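Appendix C: a fully annotated inverse folding record. The material below is reproduced so that readers can follow the format used throughout the book. The structure is listed first as tokens, followed by the designed sequence.
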């Protein structure tokens, strides 16, 4: 992956990064830290890694943080870091969903850029308020829908934007898992406990956790905007308070004179045999594409009336958008962590441009607070539709 200013003489100083959440035992916090370091654009220098003072201190010590910059309150961290001469320039928020709004607001109000895990917030009212804070702050807001960072996802997006599929007719997205097949939240499994708790996760279970990823990916690749949906949600596991399976019909807004595209989305956390089965298929008047996250370096492309073709990352037929976010030669697999790192590096490019007062490179793409609002609106529309026996709900 080409990084601007990457030589010792010309490279930009690493961006001073803080983190909220992500203490000992937290899966996604470790992923964010790895992603932030892959392209060597960030230094983690401060953290409010846990609300428990003892756990916050221990987690900070394990990460080599200065004890004076290890906090148990994200508000204390925002206030103090904003006053320090070498305080953080950006913060990663990797907490359960219900903390996102309050934490992000504290940093945005002080001009600190925010890199936040998805979904944006646990409810639409907070999402809209956070967008207003972000818009007024002058700081950047980056939402880590990491699947948009895969090179072949960028390839698919470029092909559709260039008209190679013609007018889009059908969009099929799915994200099945099986890890919540049993009621493991009752056993104390931390990830399951908060993700199935409406007070922490929000109104959506599988829809909020993984359905938002499938929805965001479909929108990112096709450039289509969702008009309305009809949802049938279930909680198959007895006693579970949030959905663990969702079947959705999608209607997209028309683009110009094109007939509106239709779609289907399936998200499930009780689909036995599936680990992280994110898949996207898009069909237009001139051709179709298929991408699977479990095999992310390959994109299947079928021009109408011609044999099916395999486009490989950095291989023949792969274009500039994919090459821009690809780090190694074709045949060597790039995966989940590298895709996540792409979001961090795009964030770094935007932050560095903002520091210089120059326009960011038009090739820089990352999910924003606006995408976050759409994601939360999607979840609440799913829940509203399902409660009305699958009635169509406009977004």
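Designed amino acids, in order:
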């Amino acid at each position: 992956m080409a990084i601007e200013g990457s030589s010792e003489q010309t490279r930009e100083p690493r961006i001073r990064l803080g983190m909220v959440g992500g203490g000992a035992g937290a899966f996604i916090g470790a992923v964010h830290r790895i992603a932030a370091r892959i392209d060597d654009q960030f230094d983690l220098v401060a953290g409010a890694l846990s609300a428990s003072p003892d756990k916050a201190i221990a987690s900070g010590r394990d990460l080599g943080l200065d004890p004076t910059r290890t906090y148990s309150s994200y508000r204390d961290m925002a206030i103090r870091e904003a006053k320090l001469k070498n305080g953080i320039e950006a913060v990663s928020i990797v907490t359960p969903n219900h903390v996102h709004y309050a934490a992000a607001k504290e940093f945005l109000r002080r001009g600190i850029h925010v890199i936040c895990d998805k979904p944006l917030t646990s409810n639409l009212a907070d999402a809209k308020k956070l967008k207003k804070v972000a818009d007024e702050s002058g700081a950047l807001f980056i939402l880590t829908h990491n699947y948009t960072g895969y090179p072949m996802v960028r390839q698919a997006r470029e092909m559709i934007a260039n008209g190679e599929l013609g007018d889009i007719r059908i969009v099929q997205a799915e994200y099945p898992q099986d890890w919540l097949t049993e009621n493991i939240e009752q056993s104390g499994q931390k990830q399951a406990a908060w993700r199935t708790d409406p007070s922490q996760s929000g109104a959506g279970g599988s829809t909020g956790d993984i359905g938002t990823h499938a929805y965001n990916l479909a929108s990112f690749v096709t450039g289509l905007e969702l008009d309305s949906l009809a949802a049938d949600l279930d909680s198959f596991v007895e006693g579970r308070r949030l959905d663990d399976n969702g079947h959705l019909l999608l209607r997209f807004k028309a683009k110009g004179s094109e007939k509106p595209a239709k779609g289907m989305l399936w998200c499930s956390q009780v689909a036995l045999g599936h680990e992280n089965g994110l898949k996207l298929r898009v069909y237009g008047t001139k051709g179709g594409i298929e991408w699977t996250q479990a095999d992310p370096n390959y994109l299947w492309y079928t021009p109408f009336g011609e044999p099916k073709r395999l486009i490989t990352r950095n291989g023949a037929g792969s274009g500039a958008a994919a090459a821009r976010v690809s780090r190694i030669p074709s045949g060597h697999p790039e995966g989940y962590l590298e895709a996540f790192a792409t979001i961090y590096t795009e964030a770094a490019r935007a932050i560095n441009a903002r520091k210089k007062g120059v326009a960011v490179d038009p090739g820089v793409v990352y999910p924003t607070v606006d995408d976050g609002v759409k994601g939360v609106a999607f979840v609440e529309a799913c829940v509203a539709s399902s409660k009305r026996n699958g009635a169509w709900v406009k977004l």
